[in-house]
Amino acid sequence: MRKILVLGGTTEAGELCARLAGDDRLSTVTSLAGLTRLPRATAGPVRRGGFGGPQGLASLLVNDGYDALVDATHPFAAQIAAHAVEAAETARVPRVKLLRPSFPRRSDARVIDVESMQGAADALPRGARIFLAAGRRELAAFRARPDLSCVLRMIEPPAPGEVLVDWTIILGRPAATAQMELELLRAHDIGFVVAKDSGGPAYAKIVAARTAGIPTVMIRRPPPPSGPIVSDVDGVLAWIEANLFAENPDGNIERSS
Ligand code: NAP
């Protein structure tokens, strides 16, 4: 039996664990940061909370006898991705990054590229009415712009002081279709969409903005981690076969020395 640790919290991580659960050669544990009080259901055992940095993760990989580490965290979760690289090298455990593709770009879309949440706030004209989907820890640059009129979608409700009193809060995940997102943008008379280039399920919002002719202020991704990268769940499954079950499983494994 081979043991895999999946760093999760994304749609793809959930799908991956559901597919790995049917493989009796494997035992899979999902790790969640533990910040979301209402995480999606995950197949198989789950552990929650940070590791205490790369050394903590490396120790867990060694002490609990893991054979592989799959980093299926969000494209903007740069810190845990860097920690995964360092920990896997220290523990000499093979690792792969599952990184979903960026949002497709179309020439008829009005896109303003920026580097950060702060860059997005700086790019918005005075008094703009914006739609923003973001977590509680990403709002500082927008709180500092009281002239903006903000419709904010978030999974977790904000704590007191985290949002400005005149913001409209929508609790929930991305809508299933571009039509639903378009209705939302129109109902709230949105002038700008602010989006992280996360790829994946939030694409409906990008399509809706393009359809409505609304500019999207697009926050660029952080650089990807070093080492092997696959773009979907099938890619992870193929990587697992090649690295854990092929005749020469060390063939594709990166070693620190
Ligand atoms: P992060 O900044 O890369 O990680 C911060 C710390 O959280 C890590 O150092 C680690 O703590 C812990 N951590 C993160 N993922 C973990 C996991 N799967 N298991 C155990 N510990 C984990 O990542 P983040 O704070 O999760 O998020 C950063 C960005 O990603 C934000 O932009 C956020 O919106 C986005 N994000 C989006 C989604 C989504 O589904 N929409 C999900 C997650 C993140 P230790 O150092 O103590 O090990």
Q: Quick gist of this model?
A:
It is built from 8 helices and 12 strands. It is an alpha/beta fold. NADP nicotinamide-adenine-dinucleotide phosphate is lined by residues 7-10, 31-33, 50-53, 56-57, 73-74, 76-80, 83, 135, 138.
Q: What report would you give on this structure?
A:
- The structure is a single chain.
- With 257 residues, this protein is of the alpha/beta class.
- It has eight helices and twelve strands.
- The protein has a six-stranded parallel sheet with strand order 3-2-1-4-5-12, with helices on both faces.
- Strand 1 (2-7), helix 1 (11-20) and strand 2 (26-32) form a beta-alpha-beta unit.
- The structure holds NADP nicotinamide-adenine-dinucleotide phosphate.
- NADP nicotinamide-adenine-dinucleotide phosphate (NAP) binds at residues 7-10, 31-33, 50-53, 56-57, 73-74, 76-80, 83, 135, 138.
Helix/strand-derived class?
alpha/beta
What is the H-and-E element order? EHEEHEHEEHEHEEHEHEEH
The residue-averaged pLDDT reads: 93
- What is the straight-line distance between the termini? 27 Å
**What is the strand arrangement across the widest sheet?**
3-2-1-4-5-12
Treating each run of at least 4 consecutive H or I residues as one helix, how many helices? 8
Bound molecules: NADP nicotinamide-adenine-dinucleotide phosphate
Largest sheet: 6 strands, parallel
**Strand content bin:** 15-25%
The helix content is 25-40%
Mass-distribution shape = elongated
Number of strands: 12
**Whole-number radius of gyration?**
20 Å
Uncertain regions spanning at least 5 consecutive residues: 253-257
